[in-house]
């Protein structure tokens, strides 16, 4: 619609308050006066009335309005000061606020968790084609106590593909793993070239017929020679592979892996079609001794003779048909091992027993005991984690037939809000424990910390969230649906964990 000029508007234009300058040109005389006969009486009265009101009452109204405006401004200023003070208090609080994924408020729809780079010495994420339920580290020949960067890791994992035929056992070589700790400006300038180095990932895969529930590498594995790895499959079979050729391929250009190396060297079929999760290699029997436990409560021992692998026909069992969830060989006694089960018991066994019955059984939980870990340096300490999210450490010297239902752990924590899925003593620091949970976190704990430490008391007073956190808790790492976590024996403080979002390779400033 086109704009209309003032000339286009006829006498219908009416204004309540106006002067000669705002009257249509056709209504203004040559001397600038408005002829009154052009307006009716009502309009004329309006003009007079408005003029009188403005002339008589205008000053009083201005004073009232000024007073009201001053009061309004004072109120607004007071409100602004209150808001500023409140914001300052919140900022001070936020400076000390801790966010724990399973304890703090849930994330909003547009919020995501980001790792704080100032608390990680190293942090790398590896995307996988499928989720992996389990992993293990392959010992390498690069030396122990490695602290310089970039780092290299040799490891293996297995997939949980949507179709069984797509599952694989994967051997991974991860190199050029750089330090991710924040540096100051000078260090950044000096190490610009190093920062440009990207991690290198190489893989060799072996096709599998089913999902792998658990995977373990022999502690005597040696790249370039024999690298024994065992898997517990969802179809009830346990496989033993030699991953030596796969490990050799990473360091030998042009090397062709023989077809025979892509098949298991031995298959354990004693479990029938009953799947299992219990699996462990003996750390003391160099020829190779493997324990496998299934969901019907049966545990079989498989050992290598000079010519072949032999599995005992008689299983170790208590006959209650309750699932064996985890198995751990003793680190100090070659014939002793422990099991954890859905019946809530931790049982200590001796392979020399002709009856294949446990030597001691102790109730550790009122629900499933999912995982256990034997301390690498202190042979009588065993850690366990259950379905309620509780984990603890047991002194096996206190296990007796008399206290089988009343034994108490030497330390116990119910910090996690989901089932414990993995637990592992640090092989280099006997007091450090890593715990993974279905609440999407991996926590690191130092059992040597005393609760009455003055520094800890002061921290708890300064940050209120710390009052609800055990002083032994060192670190909380977030990972979606984390299933397994392992320490690297040759890189102090380094861990590898697996969840539905892939693999995390990380090291914190805490350990």
Task: Outline the structure in words.
Residues 1-14 have a biased composition (Basic and acidic residues). WD repeats lie at residues 317-359, 413-448. Keywords: Nucleus, Repeat, WD repeat. This is Ribosome assembly protein RRB1. It is found in: Nucleus. The protein is an alpha+beta fold. Helices cover 16% and strands 32% of the residues. It is built from 5 helices and 28 strands. It has helices at 41-96, 185-190, 192-195, 244-251, 454-462, and strands spanning 120-126, 132-137, 151-159, 168-177, 200-207, 212-217, 228-233, 238-242, 266-268, 276-281, 289-294, 299-304, 309-311, 324-329, 336-341, 345-350, 360-363, 369-374, 381-386, 391-395, 411-413, 420-425, 432-437, 441-446, 473-478, 484-487, 495-499, 502-508. It has a 4-stranded antiparallel β-sheet with strand order 1-28-27-26, with no helix packed on it. A 4-stranded antiparallel β-sheet has the order 2-3-4-5, with helices on one face. A 4-stranded antiparallel β-sheet has the order 6-7-8-9, with no helix packed on it. A hairpin with a 6-residue loop joins β14 (324-329) and β15. The longest helix is centred in the N-terminal third of the chain and has 56 residues, at 41-96. Mean pLDDT is 84; it is low at 1-57.
What is this structure, in a nutshell?
By secondary structure, this protein is of the alpha+beta class.
Secondary structural class: alpha+beta
- The number of helices is 5
Termini gap:
75 Å
Based on CA atoms alone, the radius of gyration comes out at: 37 Å
Shape: globular
Q: Could you estimate the helical fraction of the residues in percent?
A: 10-25%
The main sheet orders its strands as: 1-28-27-26
Q: What does the main sheet amount to?
A: 4 strands, antiparallel
Pfam families: CAF1C_H4-bd, WD40
Biased composition (Basic and acidic residues): 1-14
Region (Disordered): 1-49, 86-106
Protein name: Ribosome assembly protein RRB1
